[in-house]
TrEMBL record:
GO cellular component: cytoplasm
Entry-linked InterPro entries: Class_I_gatase-like, Prot/Nucl_acid_deglycase
Keyword vocabulary terms for this entry: Glutamine amidotransferase, Plasmid, Transferase
GO terms for MF: glyoxalase III activity; transferase activity
GO terms under biological process: methylglyoxal catabolic process to D-lactate via S-lactoyl-glutathione
Protein name: Glutamine amidotransferase
Amino acid sequence: MSKGQVLVLGSNATQLGLRSGSTATVGQYLNETAVPALALLDAGYDIVLATPNGTKPHIDAGSDTKDHFGGDEAAYQRAKDFFASHPAMNDVRTLKSVVDEGLDGFVGVFVPGGHAPIVDLMQDRDAGTILRHFHAAAKSTALLCHGPVVVVAALDDAPAFRKALEEGDDAGAADLARDWIYAGYRMTVFSASEEKIAEEQVLKGELYFDMEKALRAAGGDVSVTDKNFASNVVVDRELITGQNPASDRAMADALIEALDRAAA
């Protein structure tokens, strides 16, 4: 018997604009999607995947390697097989349909990382509705790597907030974030120093803003590790955030612990 359903918010973005005017091909990270999802299933929870347009997320090519699984070929292959063929990864809903049908039946929500979520989910109205519901109900809300920046979707005008960040208008962004539901929450996210490495080695270009800056502008109490790509998970009330790809299992464990505690 299932312990309950966890909603997974996926991204449909495949292109990310860079400050140079060029674009980078992006997607969700394989390990950040599969490791927590498989851990939830193994722990007795069901998962429901929903995206803005109802199609399956694209996996970032840079994440399609056993390096993100500690070099474990079997774990890497299990994740690939899971994403390719498991019904939960292929029976994809739209965010709007999930909202319209009601959110009360979900016990938690999870947002994987990769750069893709900062393109669409960060400013998606339905994602904002979902986050506000889980916040009001004090239900576990877990976000990983770049995923934590999606919490700004809960703002009244997330697209305008994102535009202010792109334009370097910090004061305007802060003004738009007044009364943000997560103001003062402790959280973590893919760090500015980690982003510099990603920009140089993966994206081959500079982003308009880093994730630390975005969350601090909104009013988040953001902390990151001194060492790049060291696992780091921060829990504050219902919010569970993991800093980077290496935080996948630790974030999953924190989410499952919170879900089990709520069920008990």
